[in-house]
Amino acid sequence: MSVPGRVSSTPLGSIGSITITAKVFVGNLSFDTQSNELQSLFSEVGHVVEVFLPTDRATGRPRGFAFVEFDDDNAAADAVKKYDGYELRGRNLRVNAAEARPPRPNFSPGGGGGAPGGGGGFSRPKGSRRNVRSKKRSL
After folding, report:
1. DSSP 43
2. Side-chain-side CA neighbours of residue 9 (13 Å)
3. Full-prediction pTM beyond 0.85?
4. Which candidate in 75, 76, 80, 116 could, as Cys together with 22 as Cys, close a disulfide (CB 3.0–4.6 Å)?
């Protein structure tokens, strides 16, 4: 089963610790481009396993890039050669071999300190504000 956004385990080659796979990155896409359009275009060089066209969370429209996964390493290499610079919907595509995503740093949400997404850096005692107000009234 293929997970969208993940690089397949079929290696095309290896550069250092980054493994290049039968998946290609397609950039500079028009926001009107549909996944079935990319499917039919890239199927000219080989069998397309999956087309992943990420969308923006806020607007729901495509983000301007896609990943196309082939079942064959040679088809991915041919796609890079044939479609890099290819004009689609008035835009020159940027096509290259997809690289494995680097591992994300481990951090706990609200962890504080220097960790990304951490706490605010100040300390406030836990408890309800009602207790604080009642103490002020009793004075």
Report:
1. T
2. 3
3. no
4. 76
